[in-house]
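Here is one chain, start to finish.
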Amino acid sequence: MIHKAGFVNIIGNPNVGKSTLMNALVGEKLSIITSKAQTTRHRILGIVNHDEYQIIFSDTPGILKPAYELQESMMDFVKSAFDDADVLIYMVEVGETALKNEAFFDKIINSKIPVILLLNKIDKSSQEDVEAKIAFWRNKVPNSFVYVISALEKFNVQTVFYKIIELLPEGPPFYPKDQLTDKSERFFVNESIREKILMHYKKEIPYSIEVETEEFVEEEHIIKIRAVIMVERDTQKGIIIGHKGSAIKRVGTEARKDLQKFFEKKIFLDLYVKVNKNWRSNERQLKRFGYKD
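Its structure:
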């Protein structure tokens, strides 16, 4: 029996729906999803196993022009997605005409590996507009297979999945057949908490925080978790906590509910807030949080 295996790496501008697509393709919520740009900070792998294939999907941060050290590291994750890809998925929205980083776009159109271009969020456009955009992108990226999808509604996602299997190279699996992702349990705790902060806080606050799980103790019927939310300034600490602790309590309650679904166990979640000045521009701190080797 012929076995196929390979890395399918998903790239695109911020807010294009990469994480929604990744979760739909894998069948699990591995990447957090919000309406804010820069929701995805790390490169996250989602592994789909079958007797005849193993697909390693890779969700990367949205492509942007870096403004500080953390964003530089985020773009390094995108660069690495070009290095090991067996199939490259380039996602665009109906209204887009280019990547925010021209160097990445040049890599796509000169790629030696198969490129699938996905025109997402077509449910927000007319048939005439969609047809015009298909023609536009086929001309702009002539080396690609172009599909229209709605990642949120899962429209045409299965068709894309079958195309990916067709394009995969032959080879043995890279990971054990029972593995779902390369990330630790603590990583998903951190991301679940960060997702709630992205949803409920405005302006700079969501981009100034990092979450670190300090304790993760799994017992038979419950997981006890202690996590710290790090901010860059003292004023941000008060905003995260809120009046009489109301804001952080909401974050904890919502994150706990999601984590109970994810781990299928009761969760005890203890949150607190700590100031870690200018961590986004500190190379040592970025290494600590997994943004640099």
